[in-house]
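We now fix the convention by which a protein and its fold are recorded. These numbers are not coordinates but entries in a learned vocabulary of local backbone shapes. A record is reproduced here so that you can trace the correspondence yourselves:
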Amino acid sequence: MKKRVRITALILAVLCLFSFASCRSSDEDVSEVSEETSIAEEESPEESSEAPKAVEKPQQSSKQSSKQSSKVSKQESKEEVIVDNAREVLSDFTGLLAENSDTVGWVNVPNTPIDYVVVQSPKDIVDTAYEQDPYYLQKDFYGNYLYAGSIFMDYRSEVGGKNMLLHGHSMANGSMFAALLNFSDLGVYKNSPVLTFNTLYEKSKWKIIAVIKVNTLEYHGPVFRYLRGSFGSDYDFLNFVYELRMRSIIDCPVDVNENDELVTLSTCAYDFDNFRLAVIARKVREGESSAVKVSDAKYNPNPLYPDVWYNAFGGTKPTVTSFQDAYNKKQIKWYDGKKKLSKKDDTDLAKLLQSYKDKTEKRIRDSYDEKDYNSDQIKEINTIIGIYMPYVAEATDIARVNDLCNQCVAIIKTYLPERKRLEDAEKARQTELKAARSAAINAIESAASSGKFSEKNQQKVKEIIQTYKKKINECQDPAMIPVMKENAVARINKLKSG
């Protein structure tokens, strides 16, 4: 019965797989901001006066936050610690990591209340498949219930990845990611064109390249998958950026190329049911100024919206083709890379997508060894793979193929292999045997030392101890060891004199 319920839950979950975190707050008016015409520089986190109440900013956390935590060890209080044996954690984050190992960074958007620690739960990849909310959707940094939740990184992205995806509620009181809704206003964008997102391993500033509104419900029109953490090729990435720029409400004067990295800040919008607004920014390049010439920014005269938008407000959808096609027609002004484009790019991308699909089942099956599982587990694992593969076949981009594959593998890994179960059972049995043997031998030796024996009986006592020690150490049944102990103690007690 449990198996049937679990598989049914998985089927339902996959049908709504990769749904976005919900926000539960009311609409707010977007304030008007006078248009900037000068070059705007971002405010650093250190200069911001708005700090979250739940935790201290990372610059303060190494001392202040560590004092609040009973888990901080001397080793954790060092300037730097190693988390993944490859990258060193910035000293700013050691205090936060001591309090919560899910810490992945800190995000700050100048001139807004957005100034928060960012967390990521490793449980989300499996929990989401079983229709459970992301762990931090309504939990604070410490794991306590909080209606506003935390700013958290999507399980489909990783620290230092090509596109790091951050979620936050849009709260009516203006907290969390509510301020992002204002970025569809040109004046607000011009006032804050650059944000800061420091990860555990690197401090970085990011120039906003797009502000988009998208639907998540299919009856509102085709759903654009903007929550992409991975890409199959440089061209796949550029094609994604092209889609973002076509949808951007603001024409941001920031160049992008295939070597850039992105961060996406996503929250709920309230134009229609289950709408989302996302602000996407690219990392400031090494040696590049963090200034943006905001005087060149303007509204996109015809951004691409979901179909429901045109049904409600009218207008004509712009023609969206591909990065290669638009670039060849000289419609793209933001690309400053050196990639050589050809007419084959779109065809090659389609072939690459199919190649990813063709290899997915093998990737999943290579992630585990059948001989480690019992027959019932193998049947259930095969059922799960059978559920996922049709969705892989329907995927329209490489990221979705990767996400489906990774989630399927993560679910399979939750099954305790039969080999591991037997190993754990044997380990527990040996621990029990060791404890029983030690207790029995101690009791026998205690009985021998607690009384007086004649010279003749002393030799007999030694023989009893030696005999029963051997029997007890050779015994493989924990239940028999107390019986042996009682027999030995009884024989010893009979030999006691007066």
Observations:
- The radius of gyration is 31 Å.
